[in-house]
């Protein structure tokens, strides 16, 4: 059942990717392309954007599956650990200091921010390896990074920088180039690899922490794998695209009923479905007729995600989610 | 000593407790609330590191045994077993194979089939866990532990949420496992279950061993009265004993003298 579902998702991606390349402000007719501008739009604008959507979506989907498995909670999200706010803080500081205008600097700052959040998380949560303490540590890192970010924004030297920060934080794939692809792809793929390596331990967590330990899970090793895997994925995602929420929450939840519900069985389908979701959402952002620029991807996903989240809560209230 | 605890101390919970379990036998750990029963079980399962003394497996310190080997040898059923995701019974049982990383697929499947057969779960194997009754769920969770094919079965109050018939059925399964050569260690609240079914009993109170030995000795009238502070005596024949409990010991203060 799982394999068929995975093949179905791959097939959907095979269909969706070429279609997404044709869609946008300028529609490209595949049978009668206006040669020159079409190839520029395709290769320099839409292809890197599509690749980024696929890579980031896959990372966020897989990270969401891992987080939900680890916390044994269908409401968990990769953002919970505070790595995304850490990366965002780094990015904001690059605007604040003016380094953001230099190439590579914004993503570099964001990655340093993500790394800092990961290190802090490991430092606070280490030793015991308990899930509750770890989650609280994540919330702490998250609110600390959020507060510092607000501080940085409120002390922004110029209104121009402030508007840049605010726009950037909304999350978008507009105007991204191959450079962003080269930054995000290796890190995200490495992150997904680390998450896959944690699959067996996540399966054992289904039975609770004590039973998982009796099945040979080393809590500290699992924690380290999660910090590294989720951190690489989320950090590199924020570094190139800003904050994109809700993918990691929605996708594993949608995918779960199609699998045997073991956390490890969820990782690959969630990655594929996340890639598909982000690709389609980005296309919709591109096509949506809005005066004054295009709809920001982060906003679009939040608009989609909030009602979804609400529905999930209502379902949980009736005790239908497990 | 092949399996158990050697003079184990855990600050505030256990004070120099030793326990020697044997394969083919059911060992029961009994005691009033807060006696340290679950703590002792966690220590001999290797899940809690004692402050002094050591847990022992196969004549070696458990701490010196690799994590993978420990997981293959000791099956542990926690007091409140949880199943976070609504997996099927078969998937739940397959989690018991996690310690055997890299085992041949056929061997894994055989172990799962054996566990399903031992717990009579053939008809339930494709059912989601959320649809099981309490008794069925207890059997499925037990099968998960059996799928590991451990040498030692440790369970913390396995009968706590089971009605009479399901409890008796599960006890029968533990007995079968002991007969098959496994060592079974149970934390038991119900003294009659321990009296009728255990081969040896360890009575704990306030982190110390109060009595140990065959159930007739370790759960004698004197021990129960002393440890549980409650007069009691056994009724019926061996193997079908029931506990008759009198009124708890009178309050130490005599109110008449005060008024």
3D structure, described in words:
The complex is a heterodimer of chains A (322) and B (259). Chain A has 322 residues and is mainly alpha-helical. Chain A has a single domain (57-317), classed as ABC transporter involved in vitamin B12 uptake, BtuC (Orthogonal Bundle), CATH 1.10.3470.10. Chain A is built from 13 helices and no strands. Chain A has helices spanning 2-22, 35-71, 83-97, 105-125, 131-154, 159-169, 178-197, 199-205, 209-214, 219-241, 247-255, 263-287, 297-317. Chain A is globular and about 65 Å long. Chain B has one domain: Rossmann fold. Chain B is globular. The N and C termini of chain B lie far apart (58 Å). Chain B has 259 residues and is of the alpha/beta class. Chain B has helices spanning 37-44, 67-73, 89-94, 105-118, 134-147, 164-179, 191-197, 215-218, 221-227; strands at residues 3-10, 14-21, 26-30, 52-57, 60-61, 74-77, 152-156, 183-187, 200-205, 208-213, 232-235, 242-245. Helices cover 32% and strands 24% of the residues of chain B. Chain B is built from nine helices and twelve strands. Chains A and B meet through helix 8 and helix 9 of A and helix 2 and strand 6 of B.
């Amino acid at each position: 059942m799982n394999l068929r579902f995975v093949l179905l998702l791959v097939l959907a991606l095979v269909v969706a990717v070429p279609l997404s390349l044709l869609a946008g402000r300028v529609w490209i007719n595949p049978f009668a392309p206006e040669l020159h501008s079409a190839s520029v739009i395709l290769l320099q604008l839409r292809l890197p954007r599509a690749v980024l959507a696929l890579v980031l979506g896959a990372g966020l989907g897989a990270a969401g599956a891992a987080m939900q498995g680890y916390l044994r909670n269908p409401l968990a999200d990769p953002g919970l650990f505070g790595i995304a706010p850490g990366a965002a803080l780094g990015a904001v500081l690059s605007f604040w200091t003016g380094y953001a205008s230099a190439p590579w600097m914004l993503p570099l700052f964001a990655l340093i921010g993500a790394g800092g959040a990961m290190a802090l998380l490991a430092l606070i949560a280490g030793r015991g390896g308990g899930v509750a303490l770890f989650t609280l540590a994540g919330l702490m890192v998250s609110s600390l990074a959020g507060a510092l970010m607000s501080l940085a924004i409120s002390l922004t030297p110029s209104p121009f920088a402030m508007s840049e920060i605010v726009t950037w934080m909304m999350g978008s794939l507009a105007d991204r180039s191959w450079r962003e692809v080269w930054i995000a792809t290796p890190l995200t793929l490495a992150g997904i690899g680390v998450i896959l390596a944690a699959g067996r331990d996540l399966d054992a967590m289904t039975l609770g922490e004590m039973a998982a330990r009796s099945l040979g899970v080393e809590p500290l090793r699992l924690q380290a794998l999660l910090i590294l895997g989720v951190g690489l994925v989320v950090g590199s995602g924020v570094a190139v695209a800003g904050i994109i929420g809700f993918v990691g929450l929605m996708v594993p939840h949608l995918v779960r009923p199609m699998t045997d519900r073991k956390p490890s069985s969820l990782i690959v389908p969630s990655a594929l479905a996340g890639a598909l979701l982000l690709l389609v959402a980005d296309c919709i952002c591109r096509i949506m007729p809005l005066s004054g620029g295009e709809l920001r991807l982060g906003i679009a996903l939040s608009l989609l995600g909030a009602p979804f989240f609400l529905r999930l809560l209502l379902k949980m209230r009736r005790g239908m989610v497990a | 000593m092949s399996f158990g605890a050697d003079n184990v101390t855990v600050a505030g919970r256990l004070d120099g407790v030793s326990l020697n379990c044997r394969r083919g036998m059911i060992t029961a750990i009994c005691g009033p609330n807060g006696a340290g029963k679950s703590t002792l079980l966690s220590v001999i399962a290797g899940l809690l590191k004692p402050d002094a003394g050591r847990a022992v497996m196969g004549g070696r310190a458990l701490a010196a045994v690799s994590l993978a080997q420990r997981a293959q040898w000791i099956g542990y059923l926690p007091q409140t077993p949880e199943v976070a995701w609504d997996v099927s019974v078969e998937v739940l049982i397959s989690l018991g194979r996690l310690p055997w990383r890299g085992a041949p697929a056929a061997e894994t499947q055989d172990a799962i089939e054996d566990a399903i057969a031992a717990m009579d779960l053939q008809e339930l194997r494709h059912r989601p866990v959320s649809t099981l009754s309490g008794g069925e769920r207890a059997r499925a969770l037990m099968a998960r532990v059996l799928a590991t094919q451990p040498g030692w079965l440790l369970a913390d109050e396995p009968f706590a949420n089971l009605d009479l018939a399901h409890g008796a059925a599960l006890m029968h399964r533990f007995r079968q496992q002991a007969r098959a050569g496994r060592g079974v260690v149970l934390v038991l609240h119900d003294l009659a279950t321990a009296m009728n079914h255990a081969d040896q009993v360890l009575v704990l109170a306030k982190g110390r061993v109060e009595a140990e030995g065959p159930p007739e000795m370790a759960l004698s009238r004197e021990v129960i009265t002393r440890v549980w502070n409650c007069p009691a005596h056994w009724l019926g024949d061996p193997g079908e004993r029931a506990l008759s409990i009198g009124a708890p010991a009178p309050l130490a203060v005599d109110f008449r003298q005060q008024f």
